[in-house]
Structures are given as structure tokens and as C-alpha cells.
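Exercise 3.2. Students should predict the tertiary structure of the chain below and write it as C-alpha cells, then compare their answer with the key that follows.

Predict this chain's 3D structure.
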Amino acid sequence: MSYVHGIYAEIDTVDDKVFMEFKAVGTLTHQDYEKITPLIDKALDGIDNPIVDVYIDGTDFEGWQLQAAWDDLKLGLKHGKKFHKVAIYGNQDWQEVMSKVGGWFVTGEVKFFEEPLDAIAWLRE
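Answer key:
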């Protein structure tokens, strides 16, 4: 288990289009979600029908602590209907499985990629 952890985010908004890029590192904690959730809420606040595309780099992601997994689920339930496309770039088989499970909570498409440029190309389609 890594002692370095966190979610690093960049969020860009143009009109009703929102692009979110996340880098998950190590084992995520409840405190990580306490930092990232308000950023996501603020980005989506005031946009009636946002079109949200997300790129997640999970190549350094090791998993969640239990409370953080619950936080992730709540975040998906709260905003999942707003997501258009979610591209997950990873390097572990379990990440691909989790991307399929995550797709249950998102109305848009969720795809797993082993190459970052493939993920970005898909988001741009």
C-alpha cells in the first residue's frame, strides 16, 4: 500500500460542456473525497443540463478505503445522470472490472483503456 495518495483534478467548463480530468494515486481516503467533492459540485452548480466528459488516469491507483468507496458511490449517485462519457485509463485487470461496475451508476458511456491516447481520442469523438 502506498503512503502517497490523493485525487488530482482539473475541471474546465465552457457553457454547458464540462471536462474533468482526474489522476488517482495510491489508496484513496474519505479525506480525499472531502476535498474533491466540493470541486465537482461547484463545477456543476448552476448548469441545468451539463454535458460532462471525464478522463481518469488510474495507473497509480491502488483502491479505496471503505469510507472512500462509499463516498465514490454517493458521488456517482448524485451526479451520474450528468455524465456523457467517462474514459478510464488504467493498467490493472480489476480496474477494467470496476469501470464496468461504475457504468451502472452513470447514464452515459464508461470505457476502460490501456492506452491514454485511445481514451482521449474516444472522448473527442
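Discussion points: The helical segments are 30-44, 66-79, 93-102, 116-124. Residues 30-44 form the longest helix (15 residues).
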